[in-house]
Amino acid sequence: MRRVRSWRDALTLIGFLAPALALLGVFTVWPAVWAVYQSFTNKALTGFEARAPRFVGLQNYARLLDDPSFHSSMLRTFAFVLLSALVGQTLFAFLIAYLMADRPRWRLGLTPLFAALFLLPLAVPEAVAALLWASTANGTEQGLLNRGLGLLGVGPVEWLQRHAFETVTVVNIWRGIPFAMVLFAAAIESIPRTTLEAGLIDGASPWQQLRRIVLPILRPQILTFLMLTTITSFGIFGLVYFLTRGGPGNATEIIGIYIYQRAFAFFQIGLGSAAGVLLLLVLLVLGAYYVWLMREQA
Amino acid sequence: MSRDVDVAVAEPQAGPGRPATRGRPSRARRSLAKTAAYLVLVALALFAIVPFSWLALAAFDRQASIFVKVPERWTLGNFVNLFVNEDGLRLILNSLIYSGGATLVLVVVATMAGYVLSRYQFPGRRTFMLGILLLRVIPPTAIIAPLYVIATGLGFLDTYYGVTLVLASWQLPLALWLMKGFFDTVPIQIEEAAWVDGATRLQAAFRVVLPLAGPGVGAAALIAFIGAWNEFLIPLVLISDPDKQPIALGLFRAYISYTQVDWGFLAALSVVYVIPAVVFYVVARRALQQSVAGGLAGT
Amino acid sequence: MKPSSANRWRMFAFLVVIGLLATACSGGDEGGEGQDQSGGPVELTLMDHQKPRVELLRELLPKFQQEMASKGRQITVKLIEGPAEDTAFKSKLTLDYNSGNAADVTSIGAADASTFAASGYLLDLTDRLNGWADWQRFYQRLRDEAVQPDGRVYYVPREATIMQLWYRQDILEREGISTEQPKSWAELLERARQAKQAAGAPPLLFPAGKQWGGGTFGEGFIHLMLGTGSQLYDTQQKKWVVRSPGLTATLQFYEQLTSEGLLPVQPLLNPEPWVQPKYKDFPAGKLLIETCGTWCWFFDYGPNGSAPIKDITKKVATWNFPTQNGDGPPFAYGSTGWAWAVTGKTQHPDEAFELVKWLASGEFMAQNAVTIGAASPRDDLADVQPYSEQPQLLAAEKQLNGARSFPPPEGTDRMQQVIADATEAVITKKMTGEQAAAQLAEQAKQLLGPDKVLEQ
Q1: Are C347 and C384 in contact (CB under 8 A)?
Q2: What is the CB neighbour count within 10 angstroms for residue B187?
Q3: How many whole angstroms separate alpha carbon B242 and alpha carbon A191?
Q4: Which residues of A touch B170 (CB under 8 A)?
Q5: What pLDDT is attached to residue B257?
Q6: A46:C120 CB<8 A
Q7: 3-state secondary structure at position C147
Q8: CB contact under 8 A, C413 and A244
């Protein structure tokens, strides 16, 4: 590492950083700043406001705070994040990683095969994931899930019509498990074997071993994952939009879809920006924590 | 939250009423536990793979529908159709252009910046690195409306280069961190040796350091490529010309169209669409695990 | 220390890939728009959506180019296909207009014309139309409708849409249910109750809720609203009437349909809510009465439609919409559905108008009417083939004179939104008609601004 001392160094530094700064500045930072600015205007793509947007102060925010569909969209998003990411993905992924881990007095066969299967959903882009589930969770008797239920004499269930929220939650769990699993598996692998053995010699039951040894050691990784998946899940759009476009009614109108609809279906850019800014605030709080966790590595 | 867990904390404290948990669990109990574990894994594995059944069958069925069914006649017709049919080929090419272009831009930009961030000490460097990381938490949905307005203003709406640059920008924070990390692992002494041989700083960086950081460049490129390849929202908003749609949009538009949907075509297109990601995870699993273990990557 | 050869190899492979990608990029970027100079040959862009329309254009546009060439004008038309779904198409139009990227000539929903015009997106065609003798051949009510609040005309109708109540004549007759024209909502309800007995399922469909998009307003709500004595828009004061006895009564009619189980509610909450009732239940004879337009003869139930009904002319017949209390004559809804408009930013307004004139006359219009199942918007098309061979369409065209319609003023898109919300609240039983009417007034005031609404 060398200190910047000469003009030459300074020029090299600036010259090398400039393209990255430009790219980030124009396409990420500027839109974020612009979102704040626009949230104070009534900019729209149609109607009177399209020709002459005006500064309207906090009106957009007041409207959002007054709008029951914004409230329910926020609540729905929180529930979506909590159920799918924090609970579903984490629990299932940890269960898989822990069961498949090679530990003293615990070794399962076929783990590479299982691992390959569990990883599959990770390889799938949102658009394809949505298509797959549109078929699997189809609401008629011929849908795959319903055919399974039919064997049990139940159904058919209109998954995407009557249980749309639950369905997209499950889909997000499905999609998020592999990533969490990889992370947890690597973390568990990194626990020194001797630590685990010491616990066994002291006579800890499997449950105690998990609770008193493994979980405390993995706390940082688990926290990191919880935060990453929270951030990612708040931003989810394509997966749900493709499947339900926020419906039926607004059963699956999570915040990303709410914003998209305001801006590009009702063309109220100002209002959509304001909702975006509120989402940004929530995430910046999480992000600050994330950055704090990562400060060592900078 | 310390990483150094005091093992003493984990002193066994079996409840008074549960003496059986002391000592080795019996062999029978353990095999019971293993059976249960296999059952859980099989159930979850089914959950993971069952949705793929439609894709695996419909792609090879000219009479495919949205429902899972075994083709009466297995055929590669859908795939042939993809490449004969102008629309399919165009979608694939467009996706390649966006993701390839974004990757190219990103690799150049992130390599340059990563190098100097690793090699130069300057005031505010740490803040800068953390600031970049903070950009990563911005979800696309939060700023998509202003991005559209800016795209209109700057005239890059509905252009290849516009979407490419936006995609590159959004992948950049992660790539910067990765690249800086990889350059950090290349010892400065190697460069110093080159300087002694008379190379300038830049020459040393190009000839000596860059080849060593090759795997890092590759990893950053792969992650960026996949990120851009999967993106749906940005082209949805920024691309309106059907001739410039990437695969994700093509799938969506076909899925919601009124006219009869060619499910076999969609399935075949989906298979093609999934291939790069599969390759990616095969190639990059190791690197991914490392960076993931560091808590860097996100999906 | 030197880099190992393995690393060199890796680097090489990587550069090759990058090189390939770079070529792909530059190759892709060349597909930009061609520039043309004034005076020389002109390239116009034309945007339309949905396969049958687009294919018809693709087939016939060369004739336009020949016609122009024979007049010494070199005009080529580049056809752009928009997204098939109406809301997605409108979204694309809006975004294109806003960004200045819109095609020179586009198909627009007449319902959106006022909003687009007020946004300054459309070319004022008034003077050009007044100089075009054929403009007088368009039905008076459609021409009146086309006049925007500022007194100008921004579009030319490409078709007349006639909407009526469609019913399964075969089944009603078989079940001994009267097929006479119902004169009031009460009579219609009575028919629906009998039909429910016969079908064993909710028999009557008025689109409602948010999923149907603009159709909730245009294919459902408005046919009821126009049958009440109340106005929805005060053309004198240029304000929306967001609270009126008629509006409340309309929402209460939805409430009654829901509480008596006459309306198939669940399908209305699905994405693509029309699929179940229109494409499955009506052909299967489970849904017996619905609102439909002339297009249904072809697009929906024709031999190549989404859900063909065999011998449809023997199985399906139409009623006009009854009025609320039967004090007015039943009416068909007659209006311009899709229209042709020229973008305000076009470089070639004269050539674009030439194209619009060609699209709105003779052979193309006749073919178009048959392709999309519409009545002619002008009175001189009845002997032009193939339109002249379509008795249903010709019959529908005759309804135009006594028809009612709602020329959508500025703000219609937002009213559609609040009406979708209100009807959804009613059919999901979250609110009574009365409560939904109150919510509607409140929301409309918010969305349109207090100075653009009235309460009566």
Answers
A1: no
A2: 12
A3: 52
A4: 27-28
A5: 66
A6: no
A7: strand
A8: no
Whether the model pTM is above 0.90: no
Q: Is the peptide bond between A156 and the residue preceding it cis, with omega within 30 degrees of 0?
A: yes
Helices (H) and strands (E) in chain C, counts: 19, 13
- Pinpoint the alpha helices (H) of C71-168: 86-99, 110-118, 126-130, 140-146
pLDDT tens digits, one per residue of C195-214: 998 888 999 999 999 888 78
Query: Does C232 have pLDDT greater than 90?
Result: yes
Partner C contacted by B258 (CB < 8 A): yes
Q: What's the token pair of residue A219?
A: 């706390």
SS3 state of residue B206:
helix
User: Strands (DSSP E) along C276-337, which ranges?
Assistant: 289-293, 316-319, 333-336
C446 and A63 within 8 Å at the Cβ level: the answer is yes
- What distance separates the 2 farthest-apart alpha carbons in chain A? 79
Using alpha carbons, select from A276, A252, A249, A250 the residue that is nearest to residue A83.
A252
Q: Looking up tokens 């940082």, which residue turns up?
A: A220
- Per DSSP, the residues of B138-205 read --HHHHHHHHHHHHHHHT-TT-HHHHHHHHHHHHHHHHHHHHHHHHHHS-HHHHHHHHHTT--HHHHI
Count Cβ neighbours within 10 Å for each residue of C62-88 and write b for 16 or more, e otherwise: eebbeebeeeeeebbbeebbbbbbbeb
**DSSP letter (8 states) at residue A209:** I
Q: Please give the Cα distance from B162 to C99 (Å, whole number).
A: 14
Q: Where are the alpha helices (DSSP H) in C147-281?
A: 169-174, 185-199, 215, 222-225, 245-259, 265-268
| Chain B residue with the nearest C-alpha to that of A38 | B146
Tell the residue number behind the tokens 């849904």, with chain if given: C287
Provide the residue type at B221 as one letter.
Answer: A
- Shortest distance between the Cα of C20 and any Cα of chain B, in A, equals 9
Cα separation, A229 vs C193, whole angstroms: 53
